[in-house]
């Protein structure tokens, strides 16, 4: 019997497992797929350089994952925003500062400051926009600012959740891409760990003296404690059974979170038709939320774009075939760049649909109106020897990011270690609701 079982070999899982292993505990890391990374998934068969099918950026210059990047000897490319951003809110594609010069959008200028000062009761993003009286261009831009980074509809996203999750800081700052692929960070952290691939967890039995995992093929593993990093979408699907049932606080937290769809379309072209300085293009209307050149900032940049869609836009691109989705995106690019002919310049494409991925059941999470505190409730150590990690269990500095997953793994590992050092079974689990 192991001391600890860690469920899921994404960033949270490998981080928790390594921390526990370094503490001298015997740890087994179980993973349903045949690779490390989870929603960190780098592709090396699409073009000459690695591209990200999942998590794309290291957010900010102070991310907790930077020491791992340096220790692994990896290289990064900066991806600045604001000054290198274009927008289209229905009146042509322009440099962002030019968009902001139009008087019709001026009412949105203090939107982030206004949200930071909001007090309960919570509002949906739609209610907030309507109460502020935004119309026309201002409304399109405001809805884009509030939901571009979240896979939910404007009526599903809670404004106080934007405060708690640090989402508003994504609109500024300096992001970085890992040149060798972001999965190399996960592989570096997971080096030397005991990983059991192909172990798709079907049930989790937790009790004062330990945890038993049963895989879909009937295999069982037991340990004195466990850390779950299962994505919220998987937990919400009911595919994994818990015995006894999870406490009411956990169930309520899962109901208050949304795990929305995210679709990425990787598009390779014969030549670049967008400005060389462009780092990101936001679309207030149309089938795609954001476009970005994957090799921005390289000397001989490959002409490859990512068409990134969230929420309802992603759901629509997931309903059709890949060829139809690509045709929709390429037609949208012709709208955004009317002097170009992207359809004839297209040379390769790939669709990644996280909403239909059985190991994630969605891209990432957001908080519904009234869900303040849901992440803390999901992370709470209220299930005896069973602890909780994953990007959905952390709000700081930015929820549902790779850094949040990393921090959650360290926190859950510390909780599991303290539990075992106090004597497994001495601390009784909260009575299930």
Structure description:
There is one protein chain. This protein has 433 residues and is α/β, with parallel strands linked by helices. It contains 15 helices and 22 strands. It has helices spanning 11-22, 66-71, 96-100, 111-116, 125-132, 136-147, 159-165, 183-189, 232-237, 248-256, 311-319, 322-336, 342-345, 374-379, 402-423; strands at residues 2-7, 27-31, 42-43, 51-52, 58-59, 76-80, 85-88, 93-95, 174-178, 195-197, 201-207, 210-215, 220-228, 241-243, 257-260, 262-269, 280-283, 290-293, 304-310, 346-353, 364-367, 386-388. The strands form 5 sheets. Strands 1, 2, 10, 11, 12, 13, 14 and 22 form an 8-stranded mixed beta sheet that branches. It has a 7-stranded mixed beta sheet with strand order 8-7-17-18-19-16-20. The chain has a 3-stranded antiparallel beta sheet with strand order 5-9-6, with no helix packed on it.
């Amino acid at each position: 019997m192991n001391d600890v079982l860690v469920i899921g070999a994404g960033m949270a899982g490998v981080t928790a497992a390594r921390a526990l292993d370094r503490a001298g505990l015997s740890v087994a890391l179980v993973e349903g797929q045949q690779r490390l990374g989870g929603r960190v998934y780098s592709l090396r068969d699409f073009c000459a350089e690695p591209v990200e099918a999942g998590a794309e950026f290291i957010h900010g210059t102070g991310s907790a994952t930077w020491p791992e990047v340096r220790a692994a000897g990896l290289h990064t490319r900066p991806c600045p925003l604001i000054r290198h951003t274009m927008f289209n809110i229905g009146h042509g594609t322009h440099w962002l500062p030019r968009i902001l010069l139009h008087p019709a959008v001026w009412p949105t200028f203090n939107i982030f400051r206004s949200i930071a000062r909001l007090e309960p009761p919570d509002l949906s993003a739609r209610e907030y926009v309507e109460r502020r009286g935004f119309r026309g261009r201002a409304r399109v831009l405001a809805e884009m600012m509030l939901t571009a980074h979240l896979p939910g509809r404007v009526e599903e996203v809670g404004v106080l959740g934007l405060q708690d999750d640090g989402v508003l800081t994504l609109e500024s700052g300096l992001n970085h891409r890992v040149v060798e692929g972001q999965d190399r960070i996960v592989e570096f952290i997971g080096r030397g760990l005991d990983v059991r691939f192909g172990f798709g967890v079907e049930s989790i039995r937790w009790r004062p003296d330990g945890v038993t995992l049963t895989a879909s093929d009937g295999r069982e593993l037991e340990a004195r404690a466990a850390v779950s990093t299962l994505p919220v979408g998987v937990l919400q699907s009911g595919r994994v059974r818990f015995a006894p049932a999870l406490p009411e606080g956990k169930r309520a937290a899962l109901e208050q979170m949304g795990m929305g769809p995210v679709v990425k379309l990787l598009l390779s072209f014969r030549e670049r038709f967008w400005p060389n300085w462009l780092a990101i293009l936001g679309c207030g209307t149309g089938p795609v939320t954001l476009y970005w050149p994957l090799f921005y900032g390289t000397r001989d940049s490959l002409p490859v774009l990512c068409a990134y869609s969230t929420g309802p836009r992603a759901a629509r691109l997931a309903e059709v075939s890949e060829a139809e989705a690509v045709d929709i995106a390429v037609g949208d690019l012709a709208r955004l760049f009317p002097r170009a002919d992207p359809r004839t310049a297209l040379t390769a494409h790939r669709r990644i649909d996280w909403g239909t991925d059985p190991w994630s059941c969605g891209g990432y999470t957001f908080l519904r109106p009234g869900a303040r505190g849901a992440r803390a409730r999901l992370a709470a150590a209220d299930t005896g020897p069973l602890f909780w990690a994953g990007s959905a269990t952390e709000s700081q500095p930015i929820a549902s990011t790779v850094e949040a997953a990393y921090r959650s793994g360290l926190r859950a590992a510390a909780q599991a270690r303290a539990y075992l050092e106090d004597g497994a079974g001495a601390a009784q689990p909260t009575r299930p609701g």
